[in-house]
Structures are given as C-alpha cells and as structure tokens.
C-alpha cells in the first residue's frame, strides 16, 4: 500500500521522538495534506506540543502550493516529524492506507488520523491515545456524544453531517454516534484485521468504511468527546463527488446487511417452526 515517493521521504528511515517505533505504546500521528501550506506548520507544532510520546507523518499528495516543501522543512527541524511524498492526489483513503503501511513497517503500535487544517485539536490527542492504551482497539474523537461539539460550521454543513450519521446508523445498524469522524486512533494490530487490502473508499466515506469493518470484526470502540472547529484557512476538500460516494456505498452496504438479516430471520423462523 505504500506509495513510491517522488523524492526522498524526509525523516522516514527510522522513527524518532520520545517513544520511537519500538516502545510498548509507540504512536504515529498521520496527517494527510493537499494544499495546506497555510495550516501545516501551526498544526504540526501544536501536535508536537500535544503529546511528547507520538511521532508525526505528513503524507503529501504533491501539493501544487508547496505544502511538501514546508513538510520537509518541518521534518528537518524536528526529529519526530517524517514526510511521505506521493506522486499525485489519490484521495484521503489512499493517503491513510499509505500511512498505515508506513507505521506497520516501522513497528508502531498506535496510529492516529488527524486533519492538517486545525479542525482537530491536538490537545485532545492524549485522551485518544489513553483510550487505546486502556484497551480500546479504536478511539473515535466524537462530535456527537455528550461533551462533544462543533464550532463555526454553517447550519447546512452541520445538517449534512448529522443527517449522514443518522442515515448510516439506520442502514448499517451502528451504535457509533460519529461514524464520519476523522480524528481517531487505532491499535495497529487491530487495524490490520480489517482487510485493508480490499478498501477502495476514496473520500470521507473511508471513515464510515473502516468504522463498519471495525464493528463487523468485533473491535472494541470507544468514543471520546472532542470539540471540532472549522478550518482556519484554505478551502474544504468536501465536494459533491465525496458525498455521492458515501451515499452510494452506505446504501449498497446497508441493503446487503439488511437483506442478510431478513434471510437469517426467515431461516430461524423455519427451523423453529
């Protein structure tokens, strides 16, 4: 799943930081980027300050605005920061899959997904890591459990997010309140049970896909309340194609899931009858 970088990946040979890749709970924070030059340095510095026991991997999809160069400069200045350059923009899902493979190859135990735009508060990072260290296979930074919230979103964006969550939970029978959340931490050995080689979700549907797989696999999931804040600068990557992908996949998965439930119920009824 790793991509061949266009240029050497800065700081990518061995894990750095306080824990490195060999500690009992060593963690890697994966930060995908595409045209995030106005946000990246602030996000990285805050993430470094937020946890002294996690390394960072910036996964840049050859951003035309020079984000990759900023990433390299940050890696040169901070031994806990690493960079993976990819040849072209291939979507959020592919970027995270490349980061998961990178983390596995270097012996990390926990991998965290974090946006580069400042919407995910690095101050919440220790609580996500603690949840995994305490036994969760997947810790989700949730906007929609008690104590969680969203700041500075327009009403239509909030309505779309909440509506997507309600529809997804209804179709798939999920109890997870924030199925589309992008701020999450996985225990890497549990993550590798999700048949990542069969994942082809591109946009934010990737988060739903992995949540659905985690539930079906029986992973332990814990939702940790967070405050999600709209990006500081730059344009959102959300677009119509991403929404359509999520709607189509959830509907397709839901129809298969509910049909299987009905078939099993019918079979049980015949046996009991």
TrEMBL record:
GO terms for molecular function: dolichyl-phosphate beta-D-mannosyltransferase activity. GO terms for cellular component: membrane. Keywords: Glycosyltransferase, Transferase. Residues 29-194 form the Glycosyltransferase 2-like domain. It comes from the Bacteria. SUPFAM superfamilies: Nucleotide-diphospho-sugar transferases. Residues 1-27 are annotated as: Disordered. GO terms for biological process: glycolipid biosynthetic process. The keyword Glycosyltransferase applies. Belongs to the glycosyltransferase 2 family. This is Dolichol-phosphate mannosyltransferase. It comes from Glycomyces harbinensis.
């Amino acid at each position: 799943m790793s991509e061949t970088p266009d240029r050497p990946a800065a700081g990518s040979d061995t894990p750095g930081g306080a824990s490195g890749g060999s500690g009992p709970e060593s963690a890697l924070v994966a930060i995908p980027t595409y045209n995030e030059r106005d946000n990246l340095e602030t996000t990285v510095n805050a993430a470094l300050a937020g946890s002294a026991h996690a390394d960072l991997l910036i996964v840049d999809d050859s951003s035309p605005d020079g984000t990759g160069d900023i990433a390299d400069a940050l890696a040169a200045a901070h031994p806990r920061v690493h960079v993976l350059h990819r040849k072209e923009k291939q979507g959020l899902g592919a970027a995270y899959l490349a980061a998961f493979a990178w983390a596995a190859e270097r012996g990390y135990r926990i991998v965290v997904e974090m946006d580069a735009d400042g919407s995910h508060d690095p101050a919440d990072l220790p609580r996500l890591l603690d949840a995994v260290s305490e036994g969760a296979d997947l810790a989700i930074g949730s906007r929609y459990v008690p104590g969680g919230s969203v700041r500075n979103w327009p009403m239509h964006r909030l309505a779309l997010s909440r509506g997507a969550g309600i529809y997804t939970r209804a179709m798939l029978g999920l109890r997870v309140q924030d199925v589309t959340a992008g701020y999450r931490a996985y225990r890497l050995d549990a993550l590798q049970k999700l048949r990542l080689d069969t994942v082809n979700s591109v946009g934010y549907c990737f988060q739903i896909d992995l949540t659905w797989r985690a539930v079906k696999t029986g992973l332990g999931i814990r939702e940790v309340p967070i405050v999600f804040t709209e990006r500081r600068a730059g344009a959102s990557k959300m677009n119509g194609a991403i929404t359509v992908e999520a709607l189509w996949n959830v509907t397709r998965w839901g129809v298969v899931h509910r049909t299987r439930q009905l078939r099993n119920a019918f079979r049980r009824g015949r046996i009991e009858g």
